Amino acid sequence: MNRTIAIKTLLIAALALALLVPVNMIRDLIAERQARRNQAVDAIALGWGKRQVLAGPYLLIPYERSWTETTRETIDGALRERRSERTESMRLRLPVERVSWSIAAATHVKSRGIYTARLYTASVQAQGSITLPAHLHDASYRYLWGTPQLVLGISDPRGIRKVSPLSLDGETFAFAPGAGDPALAAGIHADLGLAPAAEARTLAFAFSLELAGSESLSVVPLGRDTGVALRADWPHPSFQGLFLPVKSERQDNGFSAEWQVSRYAAQGAERLAACRKDACPGLAAQELGVSFIEPVGLYQQLERASKYGFLFVGLMFAAFFLFELLRRLMIHPIQYVLIGLALAIFFLLLTALSEHLRFGLAYALATLGCVGIVTAYVVRVLQSAAAGFAFGGALAALYAVLYTLLQAEDHALLGGSVLLFLLLGGAMLATRNVDWYRVTRRDAPQE
User: Are residues 279 and 209 in the same domain?
Assistant: First the structure.
């Protein structure tokens, strides 16, 4: 191989690798901007309501268990008995027999500076039945029952807009702030003013509340049988949690979904029994719900686009080098660098514009600017308007294909793989008749 061509090949490869530095710097900038966006969204959610998780409801009955403890010991050779009274404060946690949730959520957007957060307000209604247990009977103990409470855990109580009174078997009881159970971090509770009787009783209950939050809305099914019907005006739900909906429907103006969780799947009684005095481990892992997400987020699109930066530089350098060899032109390494930097700046320009404009419009403007400047420069470098516009058209086609890949949620990898295959096949087809030995053995081209 001609020594000049070999050196030029190595130099172009080194320049392409060196251009990874500005491309990676732009990727770091995208990550930094995403972190700032997340901070802004968290600040908005802090004043509105973060992701909401409803745990329960369940029945909490405080009680004291007393017993007489007898100890025997020998003093001065005589056996003596000592009796002392012992008392232990405990809490009995029982799942409701049945609970049906009906939730309607309306989403909207709030802004802070150039950043926006998707928030929601949910109208929540619950109805079901509770079994108030009978007195525990144990000859070894004496029980003093406290006031039963209906407990509902709410992850972020700042989002509670209003709560209706609890309707229980024809009576009403007001909810009070706080979960009323040290095992839950936050929530509301209602003192029922009832006590266990000689026989168990099943009572119907109902209540409603208005809840504000952001990002997602979930329910932890603690009832023996739990049903959830949720609808919202957001067309791109992402169902999450341990239980998926048994029925869901998506439309352009929203979605609806239904869950049915049986006592055998939920095991609410077992999980409540596992609660300690100050914690209920494992409850969050049992939730079901929905996340209100963008199908392809802005910074996710930008990050994915920047991954193609080196591919664009490599393809343009390869095309230039082939043109240089086959047309016997001399293109200076500095000219390669300037074109590579123009391609890298595209992703910086796209990031800056997309924070102020719709992504499609920002992409079109960044593409127009980059293709325009590269085309004008290549026309002068190659001394050929036809060749310059051909390079510009090819670059515009690459950007159009990249935009299509960025909009694809599930088929981006397939599309990208097919694109690379077609580009390689096109290069092989275009150079299939080239005698590379003759090309590389001839004298280096002159300016």
Answer: yes
Q: Report which of 85, 168, 154 is spatially closest to residue 122, judged by C-alpha positions.
A: 154
Pair 154, 289 in one domain: yes
Four-residue CA torsion sign, 290, 296, 297, 299 = positive
Q: Which of 187, 239, 233 is nearest to 218 (CA)?
A: 239
Q: Is 69 in the same domain as 176?
A: yes
Helix (H, G, I), strand (E, B) or coil at 366: helix
Look at residue 380 in the predicted model and tell me its pLDDT. 84
Instruction: List the structure tokens of 282.
Output: 């494992």
Give the residue from 293, 309, 328 where a domain finishes. 293
Helix (H, G, I), strand (E, B) or coil at 60: strand
Write out pLDDT tens, residues 250-309: 888 889 999 998 888 877 777 777 777 777 776 767 788 998 877 667 888 888 788 777
Residues 434 and 318 in one domain: yes
Alpha helices, DSSP H, located in 267-358: 268-273, 298-306, 309-327, 333-354
Residue 192, token pair as written in the block? 């029922």
Distance CA 124, CA 162 (A): 10
**Do 317 and 275 reside in the same domain of the chain?**
no
What's at 68, amino acid-wise? Answer: T
Distance CA 195, CA 132 (A): 8
- Residue range of the domain that includes 71: 50-293
Paired strand residues for 86: 67
> What's the pTM?
0.73
CA dihedral defined by 77, 81, 84, 85, rounded to 10 degrees? 170
Per-residue confidence (pLDDT) for residue 444, from 0 to 100: 46
